[in-house]
Amino acid sequence: MGFNVLFIDSYDSFTYNLVNLIQAQNEDIRITVIHNDTFGKFEDLKKYLVAFHCIVVGPGPGNPNNGVSDIGLLVDMFNGELDVPVLGICLGFQIMCRAAGARIEQLHEIKHGQVYDINLRKNAGQLFEEYPESFKSVRYHSLHAVGATEKLIPLCETQDENGHVLMGAQYAGKPFYGVQYHPESCCSELGGQLIRNFLKLANKYNAQCRSRSALLPDGSNKIKEILSLLDKKIDKRSLYRKQELHEKPIFVEELKAEVKAEVHVVCDRLKRHFFLMTSAVTDSERGKWSIIALPDAKSTVFTYFEQLQQTVVHHWRDKDVSPEAFEKAVLFENPIRGLQRYHEDKRQFWCRIGGFMQERMIANNPELPFIGGLVGILGYEMGQYTRNKDTAKLRPDAKLVYIENCVLFNHFENTWHLISQKNDFPEDVRQVIAEAVDRCEETRPTFDELPAGITYDIKLPTYEAYAEAFEKSQKYLHNGDSYEVCLTTQTTVKPSKPVKPWRIFQSLAERNPAPFASFFDFSDLSEEYNSVCFISSSPERFIKWSRDDCELRPIKGTVSKNVYSTLEEAALVLKTPKEFGENLMILDLIRNDLYQLLDDVVVDALMSIEEYKTVYQLVSVVKGRGLRLSKFSGIDLLVHSLPAGSMTGAPKKITVELLQQEIESDLNKHINSAGVRGLYSGVTGYLSCNDNADWSVNIRCLYSYDNAKTWNLGAGGAITVLSTLEGEWDEMRTKLESALQIFLD
Ligand SMILES: C=C(O[C@@H]1C=C(C(=O)O)C=C[C@H]1O)C(=O)O
Ligand SMILES: NC(=O)CC[C@H](N)C(=O)O
Predict the structure, then answer these.
(1) From ligand 1's centre to the CA of 648, what distance in Å?
(2) Among 91, 93, 483, 721, which is best to mutate for testing ligand 2, by the most ligand atoms less than 8 A from CB?
(3) pLDDT tens digits for 665-681?
(4) Structural domains in the chain?
(5) For residues 32 and 227, what is the distance between their CA atoms, to the nearest angstrom?
(6) What is the pLDDT of residues 731-740, one digit of tens each?
(7) Distances from the Cα of 675 to the Cαs of 34, 107, 136, 462, 486, in angstroms?
(8) Ligand 2 site-directed mutation target among 143, 165, 475, 658, most atoms within 8 Å of CB
């Protein structure tokens, strides 16, 4: 027998963790998700309820006291004669309690991502059947329900600095239940049991009490019609139709070296343009490979301007497409030979990229990370919920170049791979690699200092503006609009004389070694002019995937080595509620992002500590499996999960909007006043033709949009209710200086 659940989402970042938890209880369950504003009024939704055995009202930002603006159609859900069993979670619970006459008030001590003992009342009843008297669950809330009423039967509570806090209740005489805690969090106990108990209660109610006409017979056409209509309310299309991959002859040559290669030294000797994705830190999980990508005249270059809603496509250094002609074509729509322009939104851009890659996907060498494909950079404004409103219109939000020839170095086995899709690997590059293989000893000059005699004009965020942004963030956290805000600042550096980007890269990689070092100098229009230049030394992987599975590694929780110099000291701080909550919130958010597209998601590492040159950081690892059989591709996962949760905070939608419109637009007005982050907070990496990909988060990076005259940097960190202004300012400065230091002494 089918069992249909209507899930009403309030644009939360934990929705799909719940959806998945419900689905996991029984394969006959069919869940339909809509938003709280999919219909204008609850009344408009009512006619569809005959198709559903129960409703789950999910968690979310906002305050039920604020009415429609915060909770949409949920405002009058419980008024009137609702004859459908309901389970409310967190915000959903608060809405039910309010309808039953309780008051919704702010907690004195707010709890975001904290584990508490939930203690059952004696009368907890069937919702908590088979539960022990006390169990652990995660709390994400600023608000709570207070005031005993006849209509509200308390079922469980917890105790903290606020006193007794209501954690679960039933609406007297109705099949409406709810919990304040989050049963779906990866650190909650017995979440599945709660869902099973509720489903049992719902079944019983439907069989014994629900009027016959209120629920259509199982399998009726009318039910099918309603489900298919509501299913279309949220876009679930994949970017392109996946196909089975086949092998195709390509050229791959492997050379074994006796000694470790210094990839920088090899790049230094190349006589042609290259992009580099390398590693200054290698461990078993990351930094195993360095990739040198070799663009040439055959390389297609995709540029996307979010603000202009324009994709521009041309070939690498096409003589007809000069920087001037390019600018005119993009801004004034002048047609020129060799350049195609398309007016399209971000989704259409991605469909184009998906279609382009699909034609080139092959089954070859799955053991190699990259065998040719697209490489490049994506800015923060390529992600959902953001707009690029910068006054400078010609700042690309995405730049991807198709590579046919590349070189890989395996840092564990000291092997080189020379790869060519068309069997035309450049002879000059082969020679440089052959010399590196023959040489017994690689000596490397150190490049930690930039050339002497240059001064730097540095524009930094001010402490006052930061303090104001911090207070604004706290206001939203306290009001229940957000649970965590990743607050970031912008800095620019103008050298008095030009410094070669490659020198800047060498210096950054030397001073701030990290597993994801990237060098992308996009002189795609002419050798002398780089339209964008991006240099990073990032500790953080955003997403990696192969045909079968994917991995995300969010970093959240940072302590500076200036303050805590040993791992033991750092561990004590990183295991406190502040850092734990900060990491858990993003971990649950990342699970949600993946669950939206995949059914099989696991937490592979929970908050392990990693050491870097200037900081210790907490890292969690989330894996998604079953990608091969899914209708979604890795590109779908990437696009759907941007912007990276560790750079936004949670819930993602509202926090991103508040940051752009209210918080960072003021904080960063010394650089731009549109709250635009640009390449900082975006991601960098590759889409290989064998469907392997790896993207790192753009932090600890430097980038220029003006032919390397001005360098931009961003730095920030997560603000929670447990943050202090001084602590966050110091953390932001430490991160900023890990890149800025190259200009400082
Ligand atoms: C925002 C930055 O970093 C992000 C925030 C972190 C944190 O709050 O602990 C850690 C790593 C990044 O996800 C930055 O480095 O600028
Ligand atoms: N997680 C939630 O649903 C939070 C509900 C509400 N916005 C609060 O902060 O209390």
Answers:
(1) 10
(2) 91
(3) 999 999 988 899 999 99
(4) 3-231 (3.40.50.880), 251-744 (3.60.120.10)
(5) 7
(6) 999 999 999 9
(7) 30, 30, 39, 16, 13
(8) 143
